[in-house]
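Q: what sequence does this backbone want?
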């Protein structure tokens, strides 16, 4: 009897049927991220900048989901984001005020290994680490490695307080990917999830009703205004804007260096 060959289960695929205008999406994401970080560190008196900044993360999460559909190598994709996270973390912790020590003081104290790692533990990790974990989880789902998915979700649950956006960010990436071929269903689920996350029963952490008076009797978290990103994600556009992926990656540490220099100048 001839031996039957075992065939690997096909990876789950998703056809992107939402907005695929990646150049425009990336441009809006990096501009609103810059506005958000400037509002956090340089112009904290202008709360509207933080509201505008809420647009950035949903677009980044959607771009991750779309990248997982298009990339030829999930491993290389994940490693690129991880490498950028490792490089950017010291700059992020310093520029955003999470670490008072200058990012590169260890260069003059090369024998003090602890100065290097001080940027990587017991501090606020940059968003890239959450994006990296999102890629790993989506990868495990694509390959139907559900045990790995469960293990990664357990890890995320355990370290959620250390992740930017916590479980919310991870779930958002998964939802975008899982429903990327069903935009009508996706916008309903994603929109409902954002509203649930942005309108808590408890008192608002950040009162924006004085900025936008659409809901004079309802207080919302700042993250509620992430809903403004949904038209950009779900309505197809054709801008023909092209942004090289390496320029896109380089913008993250570059804008943090700019913010650091601006905060140093403002302090002086």
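A:
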């Amino acid at each position: 009897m001839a031996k039957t060959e075992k065939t690997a289960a096909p990876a789950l695929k998703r056809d992107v049927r939402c907005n695929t205008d990646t150049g425009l999406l990336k441009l809006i994401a990096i501009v609103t991220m810059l506005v958000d970080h400037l509002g956090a560190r340089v112009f904290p008196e202008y709360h509207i900048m933080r509201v505008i900044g809420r647009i950035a993360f949903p677009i980044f999460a959607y771009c991750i989901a779309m990248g997982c559909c298009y990339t030829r190598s999930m491993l290389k994709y994940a490693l690129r984001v991880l490498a950028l996270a490792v490089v950017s973390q010291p700059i992020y912790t310093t520029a955003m005020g999470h670490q008072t020590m200058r990012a590169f003081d260890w260069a003059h104290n090369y024998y003090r290994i602890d100065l290097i790692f001080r940027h990587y533990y017991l501090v606020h990790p940059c968003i890239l680490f959450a994006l990296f974990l999102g890629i790993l989880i989506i990868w495990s789902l694509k390959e139907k490695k559900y045990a790995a998915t469960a293990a990664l979700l357990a890890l995320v649950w355990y370290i959620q307080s250390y992740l930017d956006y916590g479980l919310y960010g991870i779930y958002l990436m998964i939802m975008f990917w899982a429903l990327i071929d069903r935009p009508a269903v996706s916008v309903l689920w994603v929109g409902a999830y954002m509203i649930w996350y942005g309108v808590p029963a408890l008192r608002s952490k950040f009162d924006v009703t004085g900025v936008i008076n659409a809901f004079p009797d309802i207080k919302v978290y700042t993250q509620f205004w992430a809903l403004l990103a949904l038209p950009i994600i779900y309505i197809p556009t054709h801008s023909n804007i092209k942004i090289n992926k390496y320029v896109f990656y380089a913008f993250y540490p570059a804008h943090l260096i700019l913010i650091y220099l601006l905060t140093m100048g403002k302090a002086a």
